[in-house]
Amino acid sequence: MKKGLLVLVLFSVLLLSSCNGWFFEPSGYNPPTPIRPPTQTPSIITATPASAATMTPALVTPTMAVDTPAVVITDTLFAPPADTITPEPTSMNPFPSLLVEILGCNTGIDVTHGMGEVTNAFVVLRNTGGVELTNLKTTLNALDEGREHPDKTVEVTSLAVGYKVTLKLTVDSTYQAETPIQIEVTGDAGLFQRVGADACKDIGILAPKPEALNTPVPNSP
């Protein structure tokens, strides 16, 4: 009995609602559906380690300013020829020439040759010419000369250009008397000159040493 009554009530409700076609009557206010903004995907920031290729700081080395000499470029094609150094000739005189110098004299007693006082003269011969001098004979003469001394004449076989030789000549002279002397030089080229001294100066301790005699040596400046 109760079940039938319930069915009747439900049927009446359905009948009344079917007048406008809706099973559930819509309300008088229909709010607009909110438009949601598009959801942005959050950015994912991942800490990336520095790459292996790292920048190396440049090392700045202080440098000193040095003046660089200017480079001169020479045009070798049109450059004037370099000066050629020509060796100077040994002598400007192409002929034989001899300079005779009397250094001085001294006296002594020559017992070896059985003579009393003798006079020794020291002479320098210099080849000032342009040719070699050969077979030079140098002779010492004295006004008061006695017997001929073995060392009155000294011969030099060769005297090269620019060389000199020192000789010691001896004559038998008068005891304790002034002895004027004369030097005469001859050779293969003929007579060179005669040099004399009225009073030959005493050479004293400046006499050349025996080992320095009769040996040609280069002329000193």
Secondary structure: elements and pairs:
Elements: H1 2-17, E1 98-109, E2 117-127, E3 133-142, E4 153-159, E5 163-172, E6 181-187, E7 190-197, E8 217-218
Antiparallel strand pairs: 1-2, 2-5, 3-4, 3-6, 5-8, 6-7
Describe it for me?
This protein has one helix at 2-17; strands at residues 98-109, 117-127, 133-142, 153-159, 163-172, 181-187, 190-197, 217-218. Helices cover 7% and strands 30% of the residues. The strands form two sheets. A four-stranded antiparallel beta sheet has the order 1-2-5-8, with no helix packed on it. The protein has a four-stranded antiparallel beta sheet with strand order 4-3-6-7, with no helix packed on it. It has a domain at 98-204: Immunoglobulin-like (Sandwich).
Side by side, the strands of the main sheet go 1-2-5-8
Number of strands: 8
What is the CATH topology classification name of the domain at 98-204? Immunoglobulin-like
CATH architecture of the domain at 98-204: Sandwich
In the predicted model, the low-confidence regions spanning at least 5 consecutive residues are 20-35, 50-54, 87-91
CATH homologous superfamily of the domain at 98-204?
Answer: Immunoglobulins
Helix count from the secondary structure assignment: 1
How far do the termini sit from each other?
A: 173 Å
Described by the principal axes of the CA atoms, the overall outline is rod-shaped
